[in-house]
Amino acid sequence: LKRNPGEVEFHQAVREVLESLGPVLVKHPEFAERKIIERICEPERQIIFRVPWQDDAGNVHINRGFRVEFNSALGPYKGGLRFHPSVYLGIIKFLGFEQIFKNSLTGLPIGGGKGGSDFDPKGKSDNEIMRFCQSFITELYRHLGEHTDVPAGDIGVGGREIGYMFGQYKRITNRFEPGVLTGKGLDWGGSLVRTEATGYGATFFVDAMLKVRNESFEGKTCSVSGSGNVAIYTIEKIHQLGGKCITCSDSNGVIFHEKGIDLDLVKQLKEVERRRIEDYAKYHKDAKYIANGNIWDIPCQVAMPSATQNEINGKDAATLVKNGCIAVGEGANMPTTPEGVKVFLEAGIAYGPGKAANAGGVATSALEMQQNACRDAWTFEYTEQRLAQIMKNIHDTCYETAAEYGTPGNYVNGANIAGFIKVAKAMVAHGLI
Ligand code: NDP
Predict the structure, then answer these.
(1) Cα–chain center distance at 341
(2) Number of compact structural domains in the chain
(3) Could you tell me the strand order of the sheet in which 288-291 lies?
(4) Which of 25, 80, 103, 421 could form a disulfide linkage to 110, CB 3.0–4.6 angstroms apart?
(5) Using CB atoms within 10 A of its CB, is residue 3 exposed (0-12), middle (13-18) or buried (19+)?
(6) Are 422 and 290 part of one and the same domain?
(7) Do both 296 and 256 map to the same domain?
(8) What confidence tens digit (pLDDT) does each residue in 217-226 have?
(9) The pTM is what?
(10) 308 ligand 1 Cβ < 6 A
(11) Mean pLDDT, all residues of the chain
(12) 3-class DSSP state of 33
């Protein structure tokens, strides 16, 4: 705490992982001897830089850019970039720390990192977004590379932003190096299924948790928060698996549509027209828009928070359980507060923490890197099959590890322990670096 003052989200993420690791250190004294805990909590490198840019009226703005290269024991640093006004070092470090274990769980050769800026993309013109992305990458490019550090998208960074950053990287380095960024367009090195991957993957994970309990999505009423990349493709897969999603939201309010969310409309509003979710209710008179509403007050059987960190607190978790929720799968990173997690675990419902449930995005990014490395492009069906298999493996690994360490059904412990052991073993093997 003294070493990283004020970084509350980072403290929260570290505490949550360390709480699971006691039994691991007993079984593996070499991890304590080699000070793995102390080393894993300290990023290998943190880069903070100035990002100057000009708006359309010619005014100069200065934002702060970040890249935290947290751990490269398993492969090049890998993790998204977030553009949101709330971004500061504590947010990027929490996300980077989580990313280490998530990436380990995928079984693919990727280390952990995260980056972003306190730039607010809302209300900016396309040209302003382009100028910002170009300025951002003009500094960051020197730290990136397909074998070094490979960013992707996150909140506020989608295909458009990755395109502008890739273009500037290519221009500065004079290299067409597709493996340096993931989430690229399909015509220039992107992978099918990457756009859908986090939402689809989270839904596959919940499906696996439901199957363990002899349940399925068929006929279930589901609630998804957010209306961005993760939320949209979570809703799509829920519908494909026979569930009905009745909500979506943004930071201004909640849409409640009992008949089921009209996903084509959400895609049109958010992906094409970049409008607010409030406008959904203009097209469906039977849908309700609740300004500043609490989405978790709406009863559902499956909840999939897909917006941002700490969006479900202890009270929300208790409301969900009381209203009959039997499964929670986190599409977002750390969307449940520690009090909320406690409620879910004590209630014994199926609770899939983000670092396991939303690993499908980064896993498919690693599949994009594989395709880039051999200059290939796989079909949608094949790539989705790979994603489904990876999510099933992550689920089974967490489930089995939780049981092995004496807490059957506790996916939090399962994910933390399984993710940690692989990285810790690699760090021991690499010596004191
Ligand atoms: P997007 O920017 O596409 O969408 C974010 C959505 O969440 C928007 O609807 C946004 O509403 C809402 N939101 C953001 N901040 C807040 C806030 N403070 N309060 C309420 N709502 C908010 O981002 P993604 O869908 O990519 O990311 C969503 C979550 O999933 C994040 O936690 C991210 O870290 C995580 N994630 C994403 C992955 C990916 O592949 N994209 C991979 C793994 C995890 P508004 O427009 O009002 O801000």
Answers:
(1) 18
(2) 2
(3) 247-250, 253-256, 288-291
(4) 103
(5) exposed
(6) yes
(7) yes
(8) 999 999 999 9
(9) 0.97
(10) yes
(11) 98
(12) helix
